[in-house]
Amino acid sequence: METDSMKQKSLVVFFLDDRRYGLHLDAVERVLPALDVTPLPKAPEIVLGLINLKGKIIPVLDVRRRFRLPQREIGLQDHFIIARTSRRTVAIPVDSASGAMGISDREITETTDITPGLEHVEGVVKLRDGMLLIHDVERFLSLEEERTLAEALKE
After folding, report:
1. Which residues share a beta bridge with 123?
2. CA 90 and chain centroid, separation
């Protein structure tokens, strides 16, 4: 018999504007204060540029563009979530990160049950004070964007 503890997911919760999002904790390496971003010519539109984190060059992805939120400059109060995909490590600029949260599978509504076109969102959790969108970092870059990024990084 499965228990709820077997079905728990741990999420790192972050904010963009007043909207709350989550990433699976096992995909997150760390959260750190925002760094200077160096532009990367010929990168896909979704890539803001690169950061140098202890000698490792990491692409910075524009989640605001992906979620169709108003664009704004990265500020000193912002944070970067450093996350791993199966292909690379990426930095995701966020307004703030508020720590980890445990969610059981039964609390998650699949996005296919809500509306089509949310391919970058794995599920939605209804909380007492709003909603949390669970982001799938693996599906964040399309294959074409991934190829374009790889070519830009080679140059």
Report:
1. 110, 134
2. 9
Cα–Cα distance measured from residue 94 to residue 77, given in angstroms and rounded to the nearest whole number = 10
Topology classification of domain 4-154: OB fold (Dihydrolipoamide Acetyltransferase, E2P) (2.40.50)
Quote the tokens at residue 34. 């925002």
Helix/strand/coil (H/E/C) assignment for every residue in 76-137: CCCEEEEEECCCCEEEEEECEEEEEEEEEHHHEEEHHHCCCCCCCEEEEEEECCEEEEEECH
Q: What is the C-alpha separation between 113 and 91, in angstroms, rounded?
A: 29
Convert the pLDDT of each residue in 61-83 to its tens digit.
Answer: 998 888 888 999 999 899 999 99
Alpha carbons 7 and 139: distance in angstroms, whole number:
22
pTM: 0.85
